[in-house]
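Hi there,

I know you've been waiting on this one. I reran it after we fixed the sequence typo, so this is the corrected version. Both the input and the resulting structure follow.
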Amino acid sequence: MAENLESDVIIDAPVECVWEVVSDLRRMPQWSPQCRKVIARGPIRQGTFMLNVNRDGKLWWPTRSKVTDFSHQQRVAFRVLDNNTEWSFTLVPEGERTRLVERRDVPTRGTTQISRVLIDKVLGGEADFEANLAAGMNATLKRIKASVETSKAGPSA
């Protein structure tokens, strides 16, 4: 059974600077080692539908998702319609810094049958797949941190 996953990072920037970056889910390919393209129907906000193109080695696959939460400077989340998981970024102010938490939540009924079969038969099994997701979450957060802290240190800071 798929497990919930969580990772976090402290970013040396206030919430508004972090929000400016993470709220634009079209930029996900800049951060995520697995996501290669995000096509959103309209501006990113609650209810926006997105098509994501993902890659793991030689394997490529699309996923459909819908933004489920867009709470200004607090949280952005989307549900992957193909497996029912919800991915989120939550921003927690810590003075002039921000704790950014990335989560993958699995519904209590689990993921879809097609997702379970594909993970088992094509993507190396649940344990390997989730280990790759966890490593990808850590890489994503490091890249977001670098992006925010670099832009904060630039001429517009």
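Quick highlight: The two ends are 45 Å apart (CA to CA).

Best,
R. S.
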